[in-house]
Amino acid sequence: MGPGRAVETGNPEVCVIIGPMSQGWDRRRLRLVVFDWDGTLMDSVGSIVACTQAAVADLGWGPVSSESIRGSVGLGLREAMLSLLPAAQHGDYERLLERYRAHWLGGLREQPFLFPGVEPMLARLEAAGLFLAVATGKSRRGLDHALEQSSLAGRFHATRTADEALSKPHPQMLLDILAELGVGAGEAVVVGDTTYDLDMARNAGAAAVAVLSGTQPREELARSGPLALLDRVAELPAWLGMDGALDALAPPSV
Q: Average pLDDT of each block of 10 consecutive residues along the chain (254 residues)?
């Protein structure tokens, strides 16, 4: 898979790298944007790291590095714990999950905030007639709280969580959303900060856009072949050409 190329957007604050998947993708067919939550819309990664380390310490286990935890963000909670502590027994995971939830509900979940520009970005996309959805490794309880906390509860047309479907990169979350909204895979784009998001999209036959606001570096995200690599999710309307930017990317009319 070849490297992407830089494209001028007309906005000096928006730097876009166009990846190999952009060839043949027609943004004029777009009807649905599916967002990841943690690290994409909400700056919650630091709280997730602190919560995981506190849960591990409660059980008297050796420390888990921040880097390892950050690399697991995007998976479902159970899958993340399995990846961090593969030698633990089944009962250990249950206790670890219990302690994680206790710390999260005990106050750490109140710390995250939306990234700058998220609310007007979502309003702009909705005003353009697009469906908006969330596919996340959070639990239903966790996502509902985050939606309420951020005042975005009424913004999304569909949501799926890791306790309602198989964890990313399995495509079930995305396929469920597509079916619920009556949208084809070729009419959707997934926006996320991890390869789990990008690979979920590819496994469902959809396109994806990566954002660099999460845990994984540009080079790792690029290997999953996103349409573009954006510094911030708030740059999405400009990339879609809603400000007259990137018009050169649209295929010619027929």
A: 39 40 74 95 81 84 79 75 73 80 70 84 96 94 88 95 94 97 97 96 96 91 96 95 50 29
Q: Are 74 and 211 in contact (CB under 8 A)?
A: no
Question: Residues with catalytic annotation?
Answer: 36, 38
Q: Has residue 84 been placed in a domain?
A: yes
Last residue of one domain, picked from the residues 53, 85, 110: 110
Instruction: Select from 163, 157, 174, 162 the least CA-distant residue to 208.
Output: 174
Q: What is the 3-state secondary structure (H, E, C) of 126-190?
A: HHCCCEEEEECCCCHHHHHHHHHHCCCCCCCCEEECCCCCCCCCCCHHHHHHHHHHCCCHHHEEE
The enclosing domain of 60 has a CATH number of 1.10.150
